[in-house]
Write a structure and sequence with these properties.
It is built from 10 helices and 18 strands. It is of the alpha+beta class. It has a 6-stranded antiparallel β-sheet. A 5-stranded parallel β-sheet has the order 2-1-3-4-5, sandwiched between helices. It has a 5-stranded antiparallel β-sheet with strand order 8-9-12-13-16. α2 (46-55) runs parallel beside α3 (72-80). The longest helix is centred in the middle third of the chain and has 55 residues, at 120-174.
């Protein structure tokens, strides 16, 4: 004996409208359908049926084709034009057998045909067939409603996330409190343009003791919220207003604060990222100090693009030795590099969003192209120069989405102004 319960497929056909100008024919069909458990309504004309259909819902319509006034074909066409929420199966009763008549019926919206006189077994089979169609249609409707509801929920979540990201962008931009400051013998300008709502680039500067300026450019791996959160944490380590919380400063014997060597700053950040923050991200960095009196620069390069030295004579030269990114390996070694800026020279730290920009032909801008941009726009200063670089970069890419954050920090040494 098989104890597995039998799967019963419920026929969705419950209410049937029978339309026929013959009272006797209607009664025969109604009696047969009622015995099978259907809720049956009768109509003697097409006009009467159409009026009933405007006020009531049926699962299936069984209509004679040949009727005085509005015939079954016209009724079917008129019914299909009515607004309705679900599909209704339409069967035409006819003695027509030629293919042209059948095609005409299908064209106006009939689903099936039943030859007269009606055979009860064939009628039952046709109604069951219609029930299967309605079952699939209603299952599809249920799934569509589920999809629509799910999409609405996803859209609501997306809108909420989008609002949060807009706020996050504002907060990230607030990390760059000053985009420009004049230190007398030097000027500092910053640019930060995330490619999306939020990004992984960070630039900044702060006073690092008497006549000492610190400045940095950071590029966190990846994009999006996780990268942006790490940049916010890193910004807190380079606080301009609280030297006690600034990782780059140490207290001297007289209680004053002085800069820590740049390679030691990089080493400390590497330990923090690997041991305390335990982030899956790493970052590249250029971090340096400018002596505001002599123009001397001490810096460390941690996997970041080479710095650019731009002279008043429009010579753009790259300076750097690569180095290891921060947060990849515990025993990474970071080196100090030194240079001296001459009066009028500019030192630029930038993210690889510039040099790795791809043109329509697939070639990257690279250092050579970036140097050309700098020489071309060297007469401009500060924000005007940054705007011109972005404009030229957009033209080089052919208007394509740049796909990476853009950031710059530019220090101009001008001792003659003191």
């Amino acid at each position: 004996m098989n104890d597995t319960p039998e799967t019963v497929v419920m026929n969705p056909v419950r209410r049937i409208l029978v339309v026929d100008d013959s009272r006797a024919q209607r009664r025969i069909l109604t009696s047969s359908l009622t015995r099978q458990g259907y809720d049956v309504t009768e109509a003697g004309t097409g006009d009467e049926a159409l009026e009933i259909l405007t006020r009531n819902h049926f699962d299936l319509i069984l209509s004679d084709w040949m009727m005085p006034g509005m015939d079954g074909l016209e009724l079917c066409a008129a019914f299909r034009d009515l607004p309705r929420t679900g599909y209704v199966y339409f069967i035409l009763l006819t003695s027509k057998t030629d293919k042209g008549a059948v095609a005409q019926g299908l064209d106006v919206g009939a689903d099936d045909f039943l030859a007269k006189p009606v055979n009860p077994d064939e009628l039952r089979a046709r109604i069951n067939a219609g029930g299967r169609i309605l079952s699939m249609e209603r299952e599809l409707q249920d799934k569509n409603r589920l999809v629509t509801t799910t999409l609405a929920e996803i859209q609501a979540l997306y809108d909420s996330l989008d609002r949060d990201l807009v706020e996050a962008r504002k907060m990230q931009q607030s990390l760059v409190r000053e985009k420009y400051r004049d230190f007398g013998t030097a000027e500092v300008s910053l640019m930060l343009k995330p490619c999306g709502h939020v990004g992984g680039d960070l630039v900044g500067f702060f006073e690092a003791g008497p006549d000492m300026l610190a400045f940095y450019s950071i590029d966190v791996s990846g994009h999006g919220i996780a990268s942006a959160l790490l940049t916010a944490r890193l910004a807190s380590y380079f606080s301009d207003g609280s030297p006690t919380h600034n990782i780059a400063l140490e207290q001297g014997p007289n209680g004053d604060y002085r800069p820590r060597p740049p390679e030691m700053v990089a080493d400390e950040l590497n330990k923090l990222l690997l041991n305390d923050l335990r982030s899956e991200h790493y970052f590249t960095m250029l971090f340096g100090y400018l002596d505001l009196t002599s123009g001397g620069v001490d810096l460390t390069q941690c996997g970041h693009p080479n710095a650019v030295r731009l002279t008043p004579q429009n010579d753009a030269t790259f300076f750097g030795e690569g180095g290891m990114p921060i947060g990849l390996i515990e025993d990474a070694q970071f080196q100090r590099q030194q240079m001296t800026l001459s009066p009028g020279e500019r030192l630029i730290f930038y993210s690889d969003g510039f040099t790795e920009c791809v043109g329509p032909g697939g070639a990257m801008l690279d250092e050579v192209g970036f140097a050309d941009f700098l020489r071309k726009n060297s007469a401009l200063t500060n924000e005007a120069l940054f705007d011109a670089l972005v404009w030229d970069l957009d033209a080089y890419s052919g208007g394509q989405d740049l796909g990476d954050d853009l950031s710059c920090v530019m220090v101009t040494f001008q001792p003659d102004r003191r």
